[in-house]
């Protein structure tokens, strides 16, 4: 009995050991399996009520889908955690903390308004959170990187800053407005905010050097009646205006400009005005306006531009049905991020990730993306220039059927149409 | 200067229209009806529903919207404000809450929502006027506003119902003693102020976009106008509307100030007037009541 017992005991022991080992093995295998299956959370922060914000999210979604279908990052599938900044610094800060604390994101992409972006800088430093800005343009963020690199090095931007945007406007003013159209008096119609004030500072310095006169008028963010501003520009004899609309949707401006047959040609930046729906929003009154954009359906900047455009319009049926600039920049940003994580070999070391992001040399949908080094006044900003990325100046034109179409009028290498003035102004020359 | 005068006359006419309805209710019922801004919003959105969604022309849409808002104002009085009209503080808070609630409802109701909406213009194009290009739409708004003010004046002076309003405004008890039923006068006053607010709301927004918050700014401005002009005084509101309209326009056109400063000069004027003449420009001291 004792023997038997012992045998049984030994058997039981061996069985137990075997089962235990098997279980341990399963458990060990399970851990590996779980690790492979564990998702990689990445935050997306944008104003979801605006078309630009929706574009940001969609650019991220399309990139994540592609990356995941190709096997993910380090074998992990990207999981996007999307939060609304509600165009408010306060809401954005709460959303940022939520992404970091509750979602455990390894990096965040997105943003749009300068006022919101600047308010997130302390959080980026505090949480050492790699952040690729894909929508705002203030230079103050990079100046922080330049002045306090150790704290703010986690900030990158896959978009133009106000300096490069206005440098491109300067080029447009010289080549198209002055030399091609023969215009001399320029007006600035700018949103009252950090962005508009920065634009004023750069343009009032640069345009007079080209022999152009400048008249500047500001409007408050919520402005709905543009009568006084248009009258002031007209009284100053302005021939073309450079506008800046980001928060304000500009529809009231466009309506009034058209209905009063305002004799001033319109160029500039109108973020809501990039949406394909803007033609219908303004009942076609936006005709002849030229706005800076990342790309159009007709500009094959790189081999990635048109495939991205196609996949966007095939995936999304709801407004905005065509990508705004944030869709391109966020799509590229997510690819840049995933490649940097692959190179780093891990996702949980922000300093290592920053070092890899700094090595970025990536052909994206809008051109070749390389970040500035510390030798630049704007470190971690995307390099600007014909060999890297430049804005495309897209004109709203009327199609034969009365529908809106978007044609690139500048720079020459992307030009799909000459500039056509508003119907009530004489053609150039 | 021509541009400033023209612009300020155009905007002042609409301010007057909003303020007169507001001051009329105060004169008669002695309450600040902060739902007045909500009437403006309801008028504009009702016009949008008929014009933008049903696709009717803007003239029919405006007529329907004005009638609807007048009815709406009457219902709001009968079903809501009537119950606390003798408690001025409660009325202020309750009508403010009502406006905020209505704004939020518009945000969440699907065919409206938070995105900007647009009304068709009444008239396309612009006309030159004293060196300024003025959209014809605004000229029409100006004319309609003045016609409404005139009609209201004639109504109060010459019609029996109008005289009843005037009598109640002057002395509620006395009016009741001679057989004027205050309840009916209040109802009529609310109806008329609702219609005026709707007209202003439609013209205010026929050249700008409609968003659910459109009632706040005009409400604050007309509040200032009514206090400046003297509470309950229609003539005072008319004059104060033009003062405020001119100051605002002048601020916008003055390069050193610009549109961001728009609200400040009229508030300073209000402060100065209140210090020198607490009853407002055309107000009567109510110590004896």
Task: Walk me through the structure.
The complex is a heterodimer of chains A (429) and B (289). With 429 residues, chain A is α/β, with parallel strands linked by helices. In chain A, 44% of the residues lie in helices and 17% in strands. Chain A contains 14 helices and 14 strands. Chain A has helices at residues 2-37, 51-69, 89-101, 114-127, 140-147, 149-152, 162-180, 194-206, 227-235, 251-259, 278-281, 305-315, 325-344, 350-358; strands at residues 40-46, 78-84, 108-110, 131-133, 155-157, 185-191, 213-219, 240-245, 265-270, 290-293, 361-363, 368-370, 392-398, 404-410. In chain A, the strands form 3 sheets. In chain A, strands 7-6-8-9-10-13-14 form a 7-stranded mixed β-sheet, with helices on both faces. In chain A, strands 2-1-3-4-5 form a 5-stranded parallel β-sheet, sandwiched between helices. Chain A has a two-stranded antiparallel ribbon with strand order 11-12. In chain A, strand 11 and strand 12 form a beta hairpin. In chain A, helix 13 packs across helix 14. Chain A is globular and about 60 Å long. The termini of chain A are far apart. The model of chain A is unreliable at 1-8 and 24-36 (pLDDT under 50). Chain B has a two-stranded antiparallel ribbon with strand order 1-2. Chain B is built from 11 helices and 2 strands; from the N terminus they run ααααββααααααα. Chain B has helices at residues 2-29, 36-53, 58-79, 88-108, 136-158, 160-170, 172-177, 182-205, 216-229, 234-253, 264-276, and strands at 126-129, 132-135. The model of chain B has no long low-confidence stretch (mean pLDDT 89). By secondary structure, chain B is mainly alpha-helical. Chain B starts with a helix and ends in a 13-residue tail after the last helix. In chain B, a hairpin with a 2-residue loop joins strand 1 and strand 2. The radius of gyration of chain B is 19 Å and the shape is globular. The longest helix of chain B is centred in the first third of the chain and has 28 residues, at 2-29. The A-B interface holds A 49, 192, 217-220, 223-225, 227-229, 231-232, 234-235, 249, 251-252, 255-256, 259-262, 281 and B 3, 7, 114-116, 118, 121, 124-126, 132-133, 135, 137, 207-209, 249, 252-253, 258-260, 262.
């Amino acid at each position: 009995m004792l023997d038997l017992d012992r045998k049984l005991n030994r058997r039981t022991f061996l069985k137990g050991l075997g089962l235990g080992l098997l279980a341990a093995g399963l458990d060990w295998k399970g851990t590996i399996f779980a690790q492979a299956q564990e998702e990689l959370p990445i935050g997306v922060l944008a104003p979801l009520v605006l078309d630009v914000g929706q574009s940001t999210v969609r650019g991220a979604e399309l990139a994540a889908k592609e990356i995941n279908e190709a096997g993910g990052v380090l074998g992990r599938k990207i999981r996007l955690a999307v939060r609304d900044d509600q165009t408010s610094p306060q809401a954005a800060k709460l959303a940022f903390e939520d992404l970091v604390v509750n979602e455990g994101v390894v990096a965040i992409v997105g943003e749009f308004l300068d006022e919101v972006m600047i308010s997130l800088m302390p959080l980026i430093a505090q949480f050492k959170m790699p952040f690729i800005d894909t929508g705002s343009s203030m230079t103050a963020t990079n100046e922080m990187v330049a002045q306090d690199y150790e704290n703010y090095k986690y900030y990158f931007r896959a978009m133009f800053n106000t300096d490069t945007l206005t440098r491109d406007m300067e080029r447009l003013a010289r080549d198209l407005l002055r030399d091609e159209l023969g215009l001399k008096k320029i007006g600035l119609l700018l949103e009252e905010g950090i962005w508009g004030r920065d634009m004023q500072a750069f343009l009032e310095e640069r345009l007079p050097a080209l022999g152009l006169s400048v008249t500047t008028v500001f409007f408050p963010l919520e402005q709905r009646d543009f009568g006084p501003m248009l009258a002031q520009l007209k009284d100053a004899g302005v021939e073309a205006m450079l506008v800046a609309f980001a928060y304000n949707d500009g529809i009231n401006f466009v309506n009034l400009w058209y209905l009063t047959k305002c004799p001033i040609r319109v160029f500039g930046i109108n973020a809501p005005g990039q949406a394909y729906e803007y033609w219908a929003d303004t009942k076609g009154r936006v005709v002849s306006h030229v706005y800076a954009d990342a790309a159009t359906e007709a500009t094959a900047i790189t081999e990635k531009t048109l495939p991205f455009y196609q996949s966007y319009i095939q995936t999304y049926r709801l407004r905005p049905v065509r990508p705004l600039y944030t869709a391109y920049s966020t799509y590229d940003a997510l690819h840049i991020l995933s490649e940097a994580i692959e190179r780093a070999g891990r996702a949980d070391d922000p300093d290592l990730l920053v070092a890899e992001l700094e090595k970025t040399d990536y052909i994206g949908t809008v051109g070749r993306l390389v970040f500035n080094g510390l030798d630049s006044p704007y470190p971690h900003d995307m390099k600007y220039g014909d060999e890297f990325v430049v804005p495309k100046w897209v004109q709203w034109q009327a199609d034969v059927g009365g529908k809106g179409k978007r044609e690139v009028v500048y720079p020459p290498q992307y030009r799909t149409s000459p500039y056509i003035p508003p119907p009530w102004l004489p053609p150039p020359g | 200067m021509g541009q400033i005068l023209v612009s300020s006359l155009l905007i002042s006419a609409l301010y007057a229209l909003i303020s007169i309805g507001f001051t009329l209710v105060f004169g008669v019922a002695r309450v600040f009806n902060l739902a007045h801004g909500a009437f403006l919003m309801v008028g504009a959105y009702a016009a949008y529903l008929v014009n933008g969604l049903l696709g009717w022309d803007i003239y029919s849409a405006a007529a329907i919207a004005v009638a609807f808002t007048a009815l709406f104002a009457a219902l709001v009085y009968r079903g809501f404000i009537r119950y606390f009209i003798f408690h001025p503080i409660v009325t202020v808070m309750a009508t403010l809450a009502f406006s905020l609630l209505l704004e939020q409802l518009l945000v969440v109701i699907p065919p409206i929502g938070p995105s900007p909406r647009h009304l068709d213009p009444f008239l396309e194009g612009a006309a030159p006027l004293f060196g300024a290009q003025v959209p014809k739409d605004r000229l029409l708004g100006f004319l309609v506003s003045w016609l409404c003010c005139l009609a209201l004046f004639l109504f109060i002076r010459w019609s029996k119902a109008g005289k009843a309003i005037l009598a109640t405004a002057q002395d509620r008890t006395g009016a009741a003693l001679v057989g004027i039923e205050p309840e009916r006068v209040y109802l009529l006053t609310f109806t008329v102020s609702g219609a005026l607010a709707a007209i202003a709301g439609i013209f205010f927004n026929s050249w700008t976009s409609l968003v659910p918050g459109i009632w706040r700014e005009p409400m604050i401005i007309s509040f200032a106008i009514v206090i400046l002009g003297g509470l309950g005084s229609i003539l005072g509101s008319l004059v104060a509307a033009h003062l405020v309209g001119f100051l605002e326009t002048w601020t916008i056109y003055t390069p050193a100030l610009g549109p961001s400063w728009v609200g400040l000069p009229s508030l300073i004027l209000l402060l100065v007037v209140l210090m020198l003449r607490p009853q407002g420009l055309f107000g009567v001291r109510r110590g004896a009541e």
